[in-house]
Amino acid sequence: MSETSNEPIFTGRNCTFRGYEPQPVVIGIALATENGIEVITSPGAVNDDLEPITVDGFPAVLARPRVLDFCSVDIDVAPDQFIDVQLADGGGAQPVPQESLCRDVVEIAEQVVGTLQSLRP
User: Fold this and answer.
1) What domains appear along the chain, each with residue ranges and CATH number?
2) Which H helix or E strand runs over 117?
3) To the nearest whole number, what is the mean pLDDT of the chain?
4) Is the pTM of this model over 0.90?
5) Residues 6 or more apart from 72 whose CB is under 8 A from it?
6) Is the pLDDT of residue 69 over 70?
7) For 44-67, how does the pLDDT look when each residue is reduced to its tens digit (9 = 90+)?
8) How far apart are CA 46 and CA 111, in angstroms?
9) DSSP code string of 11-42
């Protein structure tokens, strides 16, 4: 599904995927095009624990929210633009541990950026 997000933190196109194997998860990818990653990283902007990381050469943050069934990576790709990649537990019988979600969302973020880089002329 693709739609436009008007989240309080950012505005841009987003897409959601649901998978069931090997465990049920939901992946969300949003392209924030009207504000920069500072809306996430500014002091007091979010309650998540933020860890600076690099994704395919771009500065990023791994965001661990207090809600344990979710993790995200926000990648600073250009002035006033960032990519938000989210991974959440899909509601299976066995919860997916947040540590697994955080590990896997970094890999997904690397694939997203790598795919976009490969499309450049």
Assistant:
1) 2-118 (3.40.1000)
2) helix 98-118
3) 87
4) no
5) 48, 62, 63, 65, 84, 85, 86, 87, 105
6) yes
7) 878 888 999 999 999 999 999 988
8) 25
9) EEEEEEEEE-SSS-EEEEEEEE-SS-THHHHS
